[in-house]
Design brief:
Elements lengths: L1 H11 L2 E6 L6 H10 L12 E6 L6 E2 L5 E2 L6 H4 L3 E4 L8 E2 L2 E2 L1 H10 L4 E4 L4 H6 L7 E2 L6 H7 L4 E2 L5 E3 L3 E4 L4 H14 L1 H10 L27 H8 L8 H7 L4 H12 L3 H19 L4 H7 L5 H12 L3 H8 L6
Parallel strand pairs: 1-2, 1-5, 5-8, 8-12, 9-10
Antiparallel strand pairs: 3-4, 6-7, 11-12
Helix pairs in contact: 2-7, 7-8, 9-10, 10-11, 12-14, 12-15
Length: about 325
């Protein structure tokens, strides 16, 4: 009986998150995890995450915006955190000229292997300086790509994506990509419906197309005429059908070559990759919200076969359809 009570309590206990308030922290990114993760509720209206902003010594911290914050927590918040988040600091203050803040590096090394470690924007510099990214894929803000590679050549940096999920270590690109990563954590922990609900409440997209390469400063040729948005909207209403490039291009009244170029410019993805991602997203929602057999669900999502859907889900989220359904469906009452 005691064991059953303990298991029930563990299922209802909020996941503990500590957000590091370091010197010159960017205030928007410091508040972001509390806004996104802290806004997630279970069916009974209980918070799914206990988000605590903490400084290393529990004292006030000056932000990059010219004012200070007084966190309610100090080092004790990091000791039992299950997820530790490192926001960006102006001038990557936790890493000066390649020399890391020893206190921050020590904190991150102690957390590694015990807690999930997450960075927002240039917070990746702190993770890399602590050795947490050695030999691993990661990303950071595109403006800091050259400096990051010079300081940490051992990291497999990908500057073109909005975030990288490498299991127990996750990194995101510039500021708003932190929202994308927080929503990804919600999807990963509690499913697409919970993430979509939080996104709607905050009036943000539950999933943004493409990567940060679309935001890099470069000359953008002026394009006349309509874009590909109408074709994408039509595709979303017809995901259960075989959708060829010619079908999409025809909807936009473009040649396949022009459509592909415009599509990539607008979304950062090829039409094929975009369609696959949308079908995976639909499959996840159906797995969470219906009892459809896997083969029928695969047809509804446009994969053609259960085997194809298994391959795509395994590639995207590392789980089979049945494993995903078990992880993201509430157990029956009684």
């Amino acid at each position: 009986m005691c064991q059953d009570s303990a298991m029930a309590e563990d299922r209802t206990r909020a996941h503990r998150v500590a957000v590091l308030a370091g010197p010159e922290v960017i205030a928007f990114e410091l508040a972001m995890p509390g806004r996104i993760l802290g806004g997630a509720l279970d069916d009974a209206g209980r918070p799914l995450y206990d988000v605590r902003v903490a400084s290393l010594d529990g004292g006030p911290v000056r932000t990059s915006d010219g004012w200070s914050v007084a966190p309610e927590y100090g080092a004790e918040a990091f000791a039992d955190a299950e997820t530790l988040i490192v926001p960006a600091s102006r001038g990557t203050a936790t890493v000066r000229d390649g020399v890391p803040d020893p206190a921050v590096s020590s904190l991150l090394r102690r957390a590694s292997g015990r807690a999930r470690v997450v960075s927002i924007c240039t917070g990746a510099f702190a993770l890399a300086a602590a050795g947490l990214l050695d030999g691993r894929p990661a990303t950071t803000h595109w403006q800091f790509t050259h400096r990051f590679r010079r300081l940490f050549p051992q990291v497999r940096l990908n500057p073109d994506v909005l975030f990288v999920d490498d299991g127990d270590v996750l990194t995101s690109a510039g500021t708003a990509a932190g929202i994308d990563l927080c929503l990804h954590l919600l999807r990963r922990d509690h499913g697409a419906e919970v993430a979509a609900s939080v996104a709607r409440r905050n009036v943000v997209a539950p999933w943004r197309e493409g990567g940060q390469s679309q935001f890099v400063e470069r000359p953008v040729p002026h394009e006349e005429g309509p874009g590909t948005a109408a074709a994408r909207a039509w595709a979303l209403q017809n995901l259960d059908r075989p959708l060829a490039l010619a079908d999409l291009a025809g909807r936009a009244s473009m040649s396949e070559r022009t459509f592909t170029r415009r599509f990539r410019a607008e979304t950062g993805l090829s039409p094929a990759r975009w369609l696959a991602a949308r079908r995976v997203e639909l499959a996840r929602r159906l797995l969470e919200s219906t009892d459809l057999p896997v083969d029928r669900l695969a047809a509804r999502a446009g994969f053609g076969s259960a085997a194809a859907m298994r391959m795509h889900l395994s590639t995207e989220i590392g789980m089979s359809p049945l494993a995903y359904r078990r992880a993201h469906r509430a157990p029956p009452d009684g």
